[in-house]
Amino acid sequence: MPLLTTAEGRIEYLVTGSGSPTTVFAHGLAGSIAETRPLGSAVAGTRVFLHFRGHGRSTGPDSPWTYPALAAELRAIADHTGAGRAVGVSLGAGALTTLLAETPQRFQRLVFFLPAVLDRPRRDAALDRLHAMAGRVDHRDVDGLAALLLAEQPDGVRNRADVAVFVRRQARALVGTPVSAALRQLPDQVPITDRAVLAAVTVPALVIAQQGDSAHPIWVAEQLTDALPAGRLRVFGPGGALWSARAELRALIAGFLN
Description:
The protein is α/β, with parallel strands linked by helices. It has two domains: 3-121 and 190-257, 3-Layer(aba) Sandwich (Rossmann fold), CATH 3.40.50.1820; 125-180, no CATH class. It has ten helices and eight strands. An eight-stranded mixed β-sheet has the order 1-2-4-3-5-6-7-8, sandwiched between helices. A hairpin with a 2-residue loop joins strand 1 (3-6) and strand 2 (9-17). Helix 4 runs antiparallel to helix 5 and helix 4 (125-138) runs antiparallel to helix 7 (179-185). The two termini are 26 Å apart.
């Protein structure tokens, strides 16, 4: 996959499909291009996927992990590829929110999948788990990290064998990486300090949440939807959109963007 060189380092990205329009996809914390690609499988035109700093082959710079820094990386890839639409997943949704606070009309259509935080710091067990994950990453503790990643999954799917395989594979990919710095620094931050700035984001926006997901509470998605003038909310059941309703999720995103 190609690398885009910026002042902060190199950003790995992947381009699939062809023609107009172009949509950029931003993954979640400890996520990857491979995990994000299925969300765009039915989206028309060109699809662009990036790895944020410290993920994949993207540089893990010495500068702090902040939402503005992540937003700058998302903007760099979007500008480089001419993307006019954006999909943000969890952390990627936060980076997209920060970018929109700076340039509200940068994209023509927006999808926020599983937003985790908006303009108020969270104080709950899900945030505590992120701090705990950092130590497991640094100590290369695959078993301990996999257990914490499993706790991040929706309630209804934690006992499934395929979910256990997924989190263990993700844990093996993360141990010993710079992502531990993100796990320590980002949980105490917010993408924006006042959701009122999103009133200027007048383009169509789809916000997607799911029941039973403590890492991505429905109330965050509701607040984000209410702050977006053309926002609409879709909440999936407790089985998890990616695990029990994957085809429906893909059709929802593609139908909205197409």
